[in-house]
C-alpha cells in the first residue's frame, strides 16, 4: 500500500505541476507557489479533488550557554503531500470527505546536539519539526469524515491526536509553543502528527459557537518508531486513549472579538509495564494500568484594526498530568502575537511566548541531576510573509534550566524558520 499510495501521489502532483503556466506560478498575490495550474487546480476542486503540499524548515544555532555551545547550526525539515476528496461531488455521498496525507522528516536538532546534557534531556525542543521519525515517510492522515444535518460528525481512520484534540496554532519554532501541548509533556502516550494511529472521533455541534467531541484511539508504541511510518497493524497495541473535549468559539468575546476556548481530558488504559509504569521507580519495574491528563487552551483576539484577523492576539495552554506515570506533572504556556503590524504586510506576525514545564517531584527523586523543579522556554519571533505561500521567521529563544538542572547553563538560541506552500 505504501509504495502504491506514494506513487499515485507523486505522479499526480508531478503531472499537475507540469501544467503550471509561467505567469501564474510564483505570483506574490497568489495562495500557493505553483498557482492554479493553468486553471486545472480550480477545475479539480470544483469536481471535489483538492491537493496540498508544503515544506517547513527549522534552523537553529546555539549562540551561548547550554551543554555544548561549540556546535554548528542544525536544520530540521518536514515535507507534506496530501489530498482531500469531496465524496459528495465525486460519488454522491453527501457530507462526506476523505483525507490522506504523507509526511517526511529529516534533519538534526540543536537541543540534542548542544543544549541538553544527554543525562538530563531538555523537555522541550528548539525545533518543532524534529523528531518522531527521521528516516523515510509516514502515513500521517488517512480517514473518512461524515457530517450530518443534525450537527453530528464522525471521523474514522488514522490521524494524529493533536489534529483533533488540544488543537492550537503553530506560529513559533520551538515545540513548547507549537501544536498540541499534551503531546509534548505526555508524549509517551499521546502522539501528535506526523505520527498517526487508528481511531474514531464523534463530534456534536450544539450551536454555531459550541461543540463537544469524544475520541477513542489505539495506543501502539510501534507507531512512533522510526521505520514504522506505514505500520497499519495492531500487533503491539496496548490499550487505548480515550479523549473528550468541549470547545467554545464565541464570535464576540473580549472586546467583542472572536476567541476559542478548549477544555479536555485524556484517559489511557495501557497496562504493559514497559509502556505504563510508576516514574518513581526504574522504568518498567512497577507497572500501572492507567494514566490520565487534562488541558485548558485558549486563543483570544484582544484588539482589531477593523480588517480580518489583524490586531493583537493572546493564547495560552495549561496542562496537568498523572503524577504516578508522567515525568511532567503540569505545564503553563502564555503568549502574545500581533498580526499585520504594518499595512504593507497584513499577514506578518510578531510573537512572544513563555512556557514553564514543571517536573514531577516523584520522578526527580530518582534523578539527582534534575535539581531544579522546572524548565522555562521563551521565544521571540517575526514571521515575514512576502507572499501567502512563503514565510521566513527569524527568532530568538532562551531556555532556563534546560532539562530542569542547573548543571547546564541557560541557553540562548538564534534561529531561522521557513515554510513554502505549493
Quick structural summary:
This protein is mainly beta and 422 residues long. It contains 6 helices and 16 strands. The chain has a single domain, classed as Carbohydrate-selective porin OprB (Porin).
Write the layout of secondary structure elements.
Elements (H helix, E strand, L loop, with lengths): L1 H16 L22 H8 L1 E18 L7 E13 H5 L4 E12 L2 H6 L22 E10 L4 E8 L22 H4 L11 E11 L2 E9 L21 E9 L10 E10 L22 E11 L9 E11 L6 E12 L9 E11 L1 H4 L9 E14 L2 E11 L8 E13 L1
Antiparallel strand pairs: 1-2, 1-16, 2-3, 3-4, 4-5, 5-6, 6-7, 7-8, 8-9, 9-10, 10-11, 11-12, 12-13, 13-14, 14-15, 15-16
Describe the structure.
One of its GO terms (biological process) is carbohydrate transport. It comes from Acinetobacter stercoris. Residues 1-22 form the signal peptide. With 422 residues, the chain is mostly beta strands. It has one domain (48-421): Beta Barrel (Porin). It is 10% helix and 43% strand. It has a 16-stranded antiparallel β-barrel.
Q: From N to C, what is the helix and strand string?
A: HHEEHEHEEHEEEEEEEEHEEE
Number of strand elements = 16
Arithmetic mean pLDDT: 93
> What global shape is seen?
globular
Task: Using the coordinates above, name the CATH class.
Answer: Mainly Beta
Number of helices: 6
Number of domains: 1
* Unreliable runs: 2-23
Main sheet record: 16 strands, antiparallel, barrel
CATH superfamily: Carbohydrate-selective porin OprB
Q: What is the beta-strand fraction?
A: 35-45%
Task: Please state the CA-atom Rg, rounded to the nearest Å.
Answer: 22 Å
Q: Briefly note the CATH topology name.
A: Porin
Helix content: 10-25%
Order of strands, main sheet, comes to 1-2-3-4-5-6-7-8-9-10-11-12-13-14-15-16
Would you tell me the structural class of the helices and strands?
Answer: mainly beta
Task: Based on the coordinates given, report the CATH architecture.
Answer: Beta Barrel
- Distance linking N and C termini: 25 Å
